Amino acid sequence: MLLWRLPLPGADRDGLSLVRRGDELIVTVAPFHRVLPLPSALRRCTVSGAGLRDGWLQVRFTPDPDLWPKRL
User: Which residue among 12, 17, 26, 31 sits deepest, i.e. has the most Cβ atoms within 10 Å of its Cβ?
Assistant: First the structure.
């Protein structure tokens, strides 16, 4: 499992939305949204969960074995 932590001070769960679209993560907090390009390692993973705690959004990713290089 890989974890990506994003600071979201003042955010609450009621107005929070998280969507993955291709190689991007779209984070919406109330009327505001940001489109974040995923780092290359996370592009080869699926989103397996997320949580908001103490002003931090923690997005969990699970590696997709079909997208990672095979060992030689």
Answer: 26
Angle at 62 between CA 61 and CA 67, to 5 degrees: 115
Cβ atoms of residues 61 and 2 within 8 Å: yes
User: Phi and psi at residue 64, in whole multiples of 5°?
Assistant: -95, 110
Tokens of 44: 């080869």
Work out the pLDDT band at 67, boundaries 50, 70, 90: confident
As assigned by CATH, the class of the 2-63 domain is mainly beta
Domain boundaries, the chain: 2-63
Task: Please spell the DSSP secondary structure of 13-53, one letter per residue.
Answer: GGGEEEEEETTEEEEEETTEEEEEEPPHHHHTEEEEEEEEE
Instruction: Report pLDDT digits (tens) over 30-59.
Output: 889 999 999 999 999 999 999 999 999 999
